[in-house]
Amino acid sequence: MAQRSTAGRSLPLRALICVGLLFGFYLLALGIVAALVAVNVIVIASGVIAPFLIVGSGFVALVILGIVFIVSVVPIPPPSGIELTREKAPALFDLAEEIARAADTDAPSTIVLVDEPNAFVHEETRFLGLVARGRTLAVGWQLLAGLDMNEISAVFAHEIGHFAHGDTRLTGVVYRAKDGMTSSIEFLRKDSKSTTGLAVSYLFEGYLHLFLFASRSISRD
């Protein structure tokens, strides 16, 4: 439940950091694809027959383009669980709305009951986190069963505080980039038998370490 607050940084500044991180990823990915294309053009123009190089580099280029697509359009998945309604849990919705008013922020539109002793929040956003579409508060049934109302109120206040501070607005951007790079590294090392694929995976791994270091004030993982 404990999360690092990023209230000290403004949302526009963190959005700028995200844009920079994503731009670096796109630059690296498309730069690698351009280099692979250039190498193949040079090899073909020189008359050298290298089918394994062409096929291997083509495969790697397709993987990278697929990763770019994932990072660009695949959203962070919402919490999975049992969606509660106001009719079924009026006290929880009233509590969330009361805390949100006190924090001068919008209350979560959805409360989801999850099967883990934890609580967390999710915000669906567009345009690099600058436009919010919907907010979800997930809470484990174990907490509801084991805590009294004052303790539940404290949990809700902590989680809704992430909404108030803008912590959740940019996690989708960070999530997609991290997931894309991690998947690419695993895929290239597991399924690619070429030296080119292995070398590219190390390039992505290096940028991933840089990305994780730079985005740790934005990410809630």
List the helices and strands and how they pair.
Elements (H helix, E strand, L loop, with lengths): L10 H35 L5 H23 L8 E3 L5 H13 L7 E5 L4 E8 L4 E10 H6 L2 H17 L5 H21 L3 H21 L6
Parallel strand pairs: 2-4
Antiparallel strand pairs: 1-2, 3-4
Helix pairs in contact: 1-2, 1-7, 2-6, 3-5, 6-7
Keywords:
single chain, alpha+beta, 221 residues, 7 helices, four-stranded mixed β-sheet
Largest sheet: 4 strands, mixed
Overall strand count: 4
| Rg (CA only) | 22 Å
* Share of helical residues: 55-70%
Overall mean confidence score, pLDDT: 79
Which band does the percent of strand residues land in?
5-15%
Number of helices: 7
- Low-confidence parts, pLDDT < 50 over ≥5 residues? 1-9
Please identify the structural class as seen in this structure.
alpha+beta
Strand order of the largest sheet: 1-2-4-3
Q: What is the H/E string?
A: HHEHEEEHHHH
